[in-house]
Amino acid sequence: MPHAFKATPNHPAVNYLVRLHADIGGRIQANKAEGERLADAMKHVEAVIKIFNPEFNVATIAVRRRQRTNPWFKRGTLFREALDVLRTASGPLTVAEITAAVLAAKGIRDATTAQRNGVAAGIRSCLETNAGKTVERIGDGVPKRWRLTGRLTQTKASATIGR
Predict the structure, then answer these.
(1) Which CATH architecture group holds 78-160?
(2) Helix, strand, or coil here: 152?
(3) Of the four, 1, 61, 135, 151, which is 20 to 30 A from 28 by CA?
Protein backbone atom coordinates (compact mmCIF):
# COMPACT_ATOMS: atom_id res chain seq x y z
CA MET A 1 0.00 0.00 0.00
CA PRO A 2 1.47 3.44 -0.92
CA HIS A 3 2.42 5.78 1.86
CA ALA A 4 0.44 8.98 2.22
CA PHE A 5 2.28 12.30 1.99
CA LYS A 6 2.68 13.79 5.44
CA ALA A 7 3.34 17.53 5.39
CA THR A 8 5.57 18.27 8.30
CA PRO A 9 7.05 21.70 8.94
CA ASN A 10 10.55 20.34 8.34
CA HIS A 11 9.74 18.57 5.06
CA PRO A 12 11.82 19.92 2.12
CA ALA A 13 8.78 20.13 -0.16
CA VAL A 14 6.86 22.21 2.38
CA ASN A 15 9.85 24.52 2.86
CA TYR A 16 10.12 25.02 -0.90
CA LEU A 17 6.38 25.63 -1.26
CA VAL A 18 6.48 28.22 1.55
CA ARG A 19 9.30 30.09 -0.25
CA LEU A 20 7.38 29.83 -3.55
CA HIS A 21 4.23 31.20 -1.91
CA ALA A 22 6.18 34.12 -0.44
CA ASP A 23 7.78 34.84 -3.85
CA ILE A 24 4.42 34.87 -5.62
CA GLY A 25 3.01 37.15 -2.92
CA GLY A 26 5.92 39.54 -3.46
CA ARG A 27 5.28 39.59 -7.20
CA ILE A 28 1.61 40.36 -6.62
CA GLN A 29 2.53 43.28 -4.36
CA ALA A 30 5.00 44.63 -6.92
CA ASN A 31 2.45 44.33 -9.72
CA LYS A 32 -0.22 46.07 -7.63
CA ALA A 33 2.18 48.94 -6.93
CA GLU A 34 3.07 49.18 -10.63
CA GLY A 35 -0.65 49.10 -11.52
CA GLU A 36 -1.36 51.95 -9.12
CA ARG A 37 1.53 53.96 -10.58
CA LEU A 38 0.28 53.39 -14.13
CA ALA A 39 -3.29 54.31 -13.16
CA ASP A 40 -1.99 57.54 -11.65
CA ALA A 41 -0.02 58.29 -14.84
CA MET A 42 -3.15 57.62 -16.91
CA LYS A 43 -5.12 60.13 -14.81
CA HIS A 44 -2.45 62.75 -15.48
CA VAL A 45 -2.66 62.09 -19.24
CA GLU A 46 -6.46 62.39 -19.07
CA ALA A 47 -6.08 65.74 -17.27
CA VAL A 48 -3.78 67.04 -20.02
CA ILE A 49 -6.27 65.87 -22.67
CA LYS A 50 -8.98 67.81 -20.83
CA ILE A 51 -6.77 70.93 -20.84
CA PHE A 52 -6.53 70.79 -24.64
CA ASN A 53 -10.14 69.72 -25.24
CA PRO A 54 -12.54 69.97 -22.26
CA GLU A 55 -15.38 68.30 -24.18
CA PHE A 56 -13.38 65.18 -25.03
CA ASN A 57 -14.80 61.99 -23.51
CA VAL A 58 -11.82 59.96 -22.27
CA ALA A 59 -14.08 56.95 -21.69
CA THR A 60 -14.12 56.42 -25.48
CA ILE A 61 -10.39 55.63 -25.55
CA ALA A 62 -9.93 51.92 -26.12
CA VAL A 63 -7.22 50.01 -24.31
CA ARG A 64 -4.41 48.96 -26.61
CA ARG A 65 -3.70 45.28 -26.28
CA ARG A 66 -0.38 43.99 -27.47
CA GLN A 67 -0.55 40.60 -29.04
CA ARG A 68 2.49 38.66 -29.97
CA THR A 69 1.42 36.62 -32.98
CA ASN A 70 4.88 35.32 -33.74
CA PRO A 71 6.61 33.50 -30.88
CA TRP A 72 9.57 32.23 -32.95
CA PHE A 73 11.10 35.25 -34.68
CA LYS A 74 12.39 38.33 -32.94
CA ARG A 75 11.91 41.71 -34.51
CA GLY A 76 13.94 42.07 -37.71
CA THR A 77 14.86 38.41 -38.10
CA LEU A 78 11.91 37.20 -40.17
CA PHE A 79 12.99 39.07 -43.31
CA ARG A 80 16.52 37.68 -42.95
CA GLU A 81 15.13 34.16 -42.80
CA ALA A 82 13.02 34.86 -45.91
CA LEU A 83 16.12 36.17 -47.72
CA ASP A 84 17.98 32.99 -46.80
CA VAL A 85 15.17 30.93 -48.31
CA LEU A 86 15.11 33.05 -51.48
CA ARG A 87 18.90 32.86 -51.73
CA THR A 88 18.82 29.05 -51.83
CA ALA A 89 15.69 28.75 -54.00
CA SER A 90 15.99 27.55 -57.58
CA GLY A 91 13.31 29.99 -58.78
CA PRO A 92 10.78 32.58 -57.64
CA LEU A 93 8.62 31.59 -54.64
CA THR A 94 5.20 32.57 -53.34
CA VAL A 95 4.72 33.87 -49.81
CA ALA A 96 3.15 30.53 -48.83
CA GLU A 97 6.21 28.65 -50.10
CA ILE A 98 8.59 31.04 -48.33
CA THR A 99 6.58 30.69 -45.11
CA ALA A 100 6.66 26.90 -45.27
CA ALA A 101 10.42 26.92 -45.92
CA VAL A 102 11.13 29.42 -43.12
CA LEU A 103 9.10 27.40 -40.61
CA ALA A 104 10.75 24.17 -41.77
CA ALA A 105 14.22 25.74 -41.44
CA LYS A 106 13.38 26.65 -37.82
CA GLY A 107 12.06 23.12 -37.20
CA ILE A 108 8.54 24.38 -36.46
CA ARG A 109 5.93 21.72 -37.21
CA ASP A 110 3.20 22.50 -34.67
CA ALA A 111 2.24 26.01 -35.82
CA THR A 112 -1.45 26.79 -35.64
CA THR A 113 -3.21 28.29 -38.64
CA ALA A 114 -3.29 31.70 -36.95
CA GLN A 115 0.45 31.54 -36.21
CA ARG A 116 1.23 30.40 -39.77
CA ASN A 117 -0.91 33.25 -41.14
CA GLY A 118 0.90 35.70 -38.84
CA VAL A 119 4.30 34.60 -40.12
CA ALA A 120 3.04 34.78 -43.71
CA ALA A 121 1.68 38.30 -43.11
CA GLY A 122 5.03 39.38 -41.67
CA ILE A 123 6.90 37.95 -44.65
CA ARG A 124 4.46 39.55 -47.12
CA SER A 125 4.85 42.91 -45.42
CA CYS A 126 8.65 42.71 -45.52
CA LEU A 127 8.64 41.68 -49.16
CA GLU A 128 6.32 44.54 -50.15
CA THR A 129 8.42 47.04 -48.16
CA ASN A 130 11.64 45.90 -49.84
CA ALA A 131 10.20 45.41 -53.34
CA GLY A 132 12.63 46.82 -55.89
CA LYS A 133 15.45 47.10 -53.35
CA THR A 134 16.37 43.65 -52.08
CA VAL A 135 13.60 41.56 -53.63
CA GLU A 136 11.47 41.85 -56.74
CA ARG A 137 8.05 40.66 -57.81
CA ILE A 138 7.98 38.36 -60.81
CA GLY A 139 5.00 38.79 -63.17
CA ASP A 140 1.56 40.11 -62.40
CA GLY A 141 -0.12 36.82 -61.57
CA VAL A 142 -1.74 35.74 -58.35
CA PRO A 143 -0.22 34.60 -56.08
CA LYS A 144 2.77 36.90 -56.43
CA ARG A 145 6.15 35.27 -56.81
CA TRP A 146 9.30 36.75 -55.34
CA ARG A 147 13.05 36.48 -55.90
CA LEU A 148 16.17 38.38 -54.95
CA THR A 149 16.90 41.34 -57.21
CA GLY A 150 19.16 40.57 -60.13
CA ARG A 151 21.76 43.10 -59.01
CA LEU A 152 21.99 41.56 -55.53
CA THR A 153 24.80 39.00 -55.36
CA GLN A 154 25.59 36.57 -52.59
CA THR A 155 28.19 38.83 -50.96
CA LYS A 156 26.07 41.95 -51.26
CA ALA A 157 23.08 40.12 -49.75
CA SER A 158 25.11 39.16 -46.70
CA ALA A 159 26.31 42.74 -46.26
CA THR A 160 22.79 44.13 -46.75
CA ILE A 161 21.31 42.14 -43.90
CA GLY A 162 24.16 42.76 -41.49
CA ARG A 163 25.86 39.37 -41.46
Answers:
(1) Orthogonal Bundle (1.10)
(2) coil
(3) 61
